[in-house]
Automatic annotation (TrEMBL):
Originating species: Cellulophaga tyrosinoxydans
UniProt key word Zinc: no
KW Cell cycle (keyword) present: no
Superkingdom of origin organism: Bacteria
SMART domains attached to this UniProt entry: TPR
Mapped TPR repeat ranges: 98-131, 132-165, 234-267
Phylogenetic placement of the source organism: Bacteria, Pseudomonadati, Bacteroidota, Flavobacteriia, Flavobacteriales
InterPro entries: TPR-like_helical_dom_sf, TPR_rpt
Keywords of the record: TPR repeat
Protein name: Tetratricopeptide repeat-containing protein
Length: 466
């Protein structure tokens, strides 16, 4: 297994690199070669690792450890058949080397046979004294299989071995979150923090769990402890700012976002949040200033362009809103929320064909909200395509079968087509589901409401509501 990636070049590494620059050949112990190879693998210098392996095997042709490192490189390069042949040879020499099972497991994992990989890793556990890395590999295999419960247990083992293994700690919490067991995550983190009270990463993760449960005061406390543990922890300041926003404390939120900028280089996300806070405070010019800084810092951040879009939409400057929503859709053309916003803007500009297209895109990319169907049908209706409006509403009804709004709308459009029986049918169904929509229906379709049949329905409704 690879050593610590943070290791500094040792004397053997310096000596090895000096050898490569000359025609001299130096002798190294097999253990030195292992350290040299690990160093290059950990730093992503595969070519140098392969050179060290070649020379190492020339000097120590029987070294199983160097051969295993050679196999690790072969697996990394997807030369799986060559790796398997070498493993077969090694297994005849050493049946009880856990690394052989680990590398076979890596090969099966590469072939997406995760069950076989897990079986081999479990065999490695049986014969290994150092099981830390094996549990980490097991956790990843379970993640590949979407077995988050067993993955969580494997990563918990890693944290038990090393309570500063934050990578495994993150994975444990990820599993809790995927299982939507936020209470379990909170309990686990609190237990962890009793033993490690100054672990800023754990406090940060605890704050996020409280935030998910809308326990904002508890989240603030957790982030404060994270900052006490490490006053340069940018993530804690940023997340604390988000909590303060939820509590309506926008000036305090801005202070935390500005702290992240003072600690490190500014980020587009910090500028975006500051802009949102200023907008909530009514500081229009400051909001615009920070929104523009957002997209200047990261021109590919679609949320930045959307923030500017929303800013101008609220000011009813629809031309500018249209310009900036185009920027957002150019960056992420499959985002249904952007297309929905585009539909609203084009409607406000009375560009009905373009609005029709935008709402179609929103639906095609997965936005099935009730108001999306209704807004789309409104646009098509305004464009005098009543038949298409009916088809849109019928399609929307498949996603919202028990909502009266679509039925009221269907009734009204059929009335415009003089299809009285269909109009009456849908209206009767709508009233049964939710009669409160009648008042709006009367405003939108006054001519139909003036008919004798409709007057009778309204009279019955009034009598029933007394």
């Amino acid at each position: 297994m690879a050593l610590d990636a943070e290791e500094r070049p040792s004397q053997p590494i310096t000596k090895f690199e000096s050898m490569l620059k000359t025609d001299d050949v130096y002798f190294f112990d097999a253990e030195d070669f292992e350290d040299i190879i690990h160093h290059y693998l950990n730093n992503g210098k595969i070519a140098l690792a392969k050179k060290a392996i070649k020379i190492g095997l020339q000097q120590h042709p029987e070294s199983i450890e160097i051969k295993l490192l050679h196999i690790e490189v072969l697996v990394f390069e997807n030369k799986l058949e060559d790796a398997e042949k070498m493993l077969d040879e090694l297994q005849t020499l050493d049946m009880h080397n856990e690394e052989i099972y680990i590398q076979r497991a890596n090969i099966f994992s590469k072939k997406d046979n995760h069950i076989a990989a897990i079986n081999l890793l479990e065999k490695a556990l049986e014969i290994s004294e150092d099981t830390f890395d094996i549990y980490s590999l097991l956790g990843m295999e379970y993640l590949f299989m979407d077995d988050f419960e067993l993955a969580k247990k494997s990563f918990m083992k890693c944290v038990e071995f090393d309570d500063e293994d934050y990578s495994s700690l993150y994975n444990v919490i990820y599993c809790f979150e995927f299982l939507e067991d936020f209470d379990g995550a909170i309990h686990y983190l609190n237990d962890y923090l009793e033993k490690n009270p100054y672990a800023e990463v754990a406090w940060h993760q605890l704050g996020k769990q409280y935030f998910s449960k809308k326990m904002y005061k508890e989240a603030l406390s957790a982030y404060d402890f994270a900052i006490i543990s490490d006053d340069t922890f940018i993530g804690a300041y940023f997340e604390k700012g988000k909590v303060l926003e939820k509590l309506g404390l926008y000036n305090e939120a801005i202070e935390n976002y500005e702290t992240t900028i003072s600690i490190e280089d500014p980020t587009s996300h910090a500028y975006l949040r500051i802009g949102k806070c200023h907008e909530k405070l009514g500081n229009t010019d400051m909001a615009k200033y920070y929104f523009y800084h957002t997209v200047h810092e990261d021109p590919l951040l679609d949320k930045g362009w959307l923030a500017i879009t929303d800013f101008y939409y609220r000011l009813k400057n629809y031309e500018k809103a249209a310009y900036y929503i185009n920027k957002a859709t150019n960056i992420d053309g499959e985002n249904p929320l952007y297309w929905k916003k585009c539909g609203k803007i084009k409607t406000a500009l009375n560009k009905l064909d373009e609005a029709d297209f935008a709402y179609k895109q929103a639906v095609d990319f997965g936005n099935y909200d009730l108001d999306t169907w209704l807004l789309w049908a409104d646009v098509v209706q305004k464009n005098n395509d009543l038949e298409s409006a009916i088809q849109i509403l019928k399609q929307g009804r498949e996603f919202h079968p028990d909502d009266a709004a679509i039925l009221f709308k269907l009734s009204g459009i059929h009335s415009l087509l003089s299809e009285t029986k269909k109009a009456q049918k849908y209206l009767a169904e709508a009233i049964i589901l939710n009669a409160n929509g009648l008042e709006k229906f009367q405003i939108n379709f006054p001519e139909f409401c003036a008919t004798d049949w409709m007057k009778n329905i309204l009279e019955q409704y009034k009598n029933a509501s007394k």
